[in-house]
């Protein structure tokens, strides 16, 4: 600011005296005296002297400088209302004055002094003069460095997303915290939540010319999360969403984790790849924040780190909940035949289901790997009455093949996976008299009012039908936003509170009581040509 003022002083003095007229000599003498007060840092006397000069009804090139220096002196003594009034009078009398950008600079200064940072930034950023560029930068640095309230910093950063100084200030604020305890206290008090989505965005595929996005599910998930952010805002919960393009590159992940601003994150969604996921999990353990695995059902992700959670139930949890469901049904007998197809997940699910049934006292009459061939499957079915058949498969032809193989006993219930069928291949004739139950973690209940509401909002916002991942992004953000807003770093206490799960969701929801694994496993059955939740 000093650099600017000196320039104005020189211009004002030289211009005033080079244009002097004899009938203005008295005014100029008073102006020179007032200017001397200012140069000697006697701002109160300068303010009074320039105020008197401003009130005189002279009309000469020096008068606008009197208004200007009155405002400057008033700012120096903290009389900001007077300074603003002086500038307003200046602009009223001299609307086309050549120093109007310097006037804008003083308006910005007054706004900053009054702690109206948004107004100060708005005015300062509208000044285009190259000669004032460095002064404006110094002005903003000076006042923005005084902001210590994280809520204020974040609010301003949202209003002025291109303001680098605000981002630097937020980073500096987080860097001041020397311990995990400091960061936890910061998160507790900052009044908003930072959610980081660490997902393979694949920037190269963002081009409109790209024929197909292999990562469309990432965009769907994020779009759902944005709608959840708007809903949380209505609930007075402020969530910032940040997306980081993360692959399986450890160095890339470390670069993100070492960013000071990132260390104020309250929740991580992803990464999806093992190397970057390990590093992210270690980070979450250090800073005591949750990491959500949005699409994986691999329980090994939960073995080392207790801050890691599965949004989808693990293969083991699916087996447990399916077996629990079966034991509550009026199936005759306590025996079962278990079949699985070729994928590793199929065999894992079959083995997990077998172990649960054995613990519940069931006899396993068959445990066989099969293909989607009805004759082959029929040859492996025991020649005795079964309480039910279990088929673990990701082959959409296997379900129909199993039904065909079971033609000799239409009353035997089939428990399988949602991937076992293409619903278009199922008809009333095919399933007539059958009991079919499917493990379906991605089930969306179209009878649920929350689903209908979300579909309408999503279509209105994006002009497309939401995918499962859109629902997933929406529900994850809602659930964790509410939990972290209420419980903060003590979120595990919230996860063990049954009241946490009373909210309605568009998917089947969550249950993390005493668990990092989602214990909600939808079981569906085929009725009226569609799958519905089994009772």
UniProtKB/TrEMBL annotation:
<feature type="domain" description="Leucine-binding protein">
    <location>
        <begin position="222"/>
        <end position="503"/>
    </location>
</feature>
<dbReference type="InterPro" id="IPR028082">
    <property type="entry name" value="Peripla_BP_I"/>
</dbReference>
<dbReference type="InterPro" id="IPR028081">
    <property type="entry name" value="Leu-bd"/>
</dbReference>
<protein>
    <submittedName>
        <fullName>ABC transporter substrate-binding protein</fullName>
    </submittedName>
</protein>
<dbReference type="InterPro" id="IPR011990">
    <property type="entry name" value="TPR-like_helical_dom_sf"/>
</dbReference>
<keyword id="KW-0732">Signal</keyword>
<comment type="similarity">
    <text>Belongs to the leucine-binding protein family.</text>
</comment>
<dbReference type="Pfam" id="PF13458">
    <property type="entry name" value="Peripla_BP_6"/>
</dbReference>
<dbReference type="InterPro" id="IPR051010">
    <property type="entry name" value="BCAA_transport"/>
</dbReference>
<feature type="signal peptide">
    <location>
        <begin position="1"/>
        <end position="20"/>
    </location>
</feature>
């Amino acid at each position: 600011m000093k650099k600017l003022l000196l320039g104005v002083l020189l211009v004002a003095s030289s211009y005033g005296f080079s244009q002097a007229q004899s009938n203005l000599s008295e005014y100029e003498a008073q102006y020179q005296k007032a200017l001397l007060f200012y140069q000697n840092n006697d701002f109160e006397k300068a303010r009074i002297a320039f105020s008197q000069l401003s009130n005189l009804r002279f009309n000469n090139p020096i008068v606008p400088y009197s208004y200007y220096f009155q405002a400057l002196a008033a700012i120096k003594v903290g009389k900001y209302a007077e300074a603003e009034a002086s500038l307003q009078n200046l602009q009223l009398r001299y609307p086309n004055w050549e120093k109007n950008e310097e006037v804008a600079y003083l308006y910005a200064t007054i706004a900053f002094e009054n702690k109206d940072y948004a107004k100060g930034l708005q005015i300062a950023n509208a000044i285009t003069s190259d000669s004032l560029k460095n002064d404006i930068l110094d002005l903003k640095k000076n006042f923005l460095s005084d902001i210590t309230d994280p809520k204020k910093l974040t609010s301003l950063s949202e209003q002025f997303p291109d303001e680098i100084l605000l981002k630097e200030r937020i980073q500096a604020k987080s860097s001041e915290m020397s311990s995990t305890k400091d960061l936890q206290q910061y998160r507790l008090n900052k009044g908003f939540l930072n959610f980081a989505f660490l997902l393979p965005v694949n920037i190269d595929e963002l081009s409109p010319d790209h024929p197909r996005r292999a990562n469309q599910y990432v965009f769907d998930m994020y779009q759902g999360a944005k709608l959840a952010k708007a809903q949380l805002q209505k609930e007075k919960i402020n969530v910032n969403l940040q997306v980081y393009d993360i692959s399986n590159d450890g160095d890339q992940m470390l670069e993100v984790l070492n960013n000071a601003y990132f260390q104020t994150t309250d929740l991580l969604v992803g990464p999806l790849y093992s190397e970057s996921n390990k590093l992210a999990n270690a980070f979450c353990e250090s800073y005591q924040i949750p990491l959500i695995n949005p699409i994986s059902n691999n329980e090994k992700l939960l073995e080392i780190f207790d801050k890691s959670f599965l949004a989808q139930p693990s293969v083991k949890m699916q087996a447990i909940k399916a077996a629990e469901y079966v034991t509550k049904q009026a199936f005759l007998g306590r025996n079962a035949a278990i079949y699985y197809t070729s994928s590793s997940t199929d065999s894992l699910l079959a083995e997990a289901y077998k172990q649960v049934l054995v613990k519940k006292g069931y006899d396993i009459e068959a445990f066989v790997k099969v293909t989607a061939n009805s004759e082959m499957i029929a040859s492996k079915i025991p020649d005795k009455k079964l309480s039910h058949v279990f088929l673990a498969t990701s082959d959409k032809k296997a379900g129909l093949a199993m039904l065909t193989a079971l033609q000799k006993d239409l009353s035997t219930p089939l428990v399988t996976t949602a991937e076992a069928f293409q619903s278009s291949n199922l008809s009333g004739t095919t399933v007539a008299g059958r009991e079919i139950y499917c493990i379906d973690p991605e089930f969306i209940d179209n009878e649920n009012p929350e689903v209908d509401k979300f579909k309408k909002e999503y279509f209105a916002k994006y002009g497309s039908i939401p995918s499962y991942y859109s629902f997933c992004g929406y529900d994850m953000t809602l659930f964790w936003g509410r939990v972290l807003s209420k419980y903060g770093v003590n979120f595990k206490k919230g996860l063990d509170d049954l009241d946490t799960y009373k909210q309605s969701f568009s998917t089947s929801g969550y249950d993390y009581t005493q668990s990092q694994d989602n214990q909600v496993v939808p079981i569906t059955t085929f009725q009226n040509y569609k799958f519905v939740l089994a009772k």
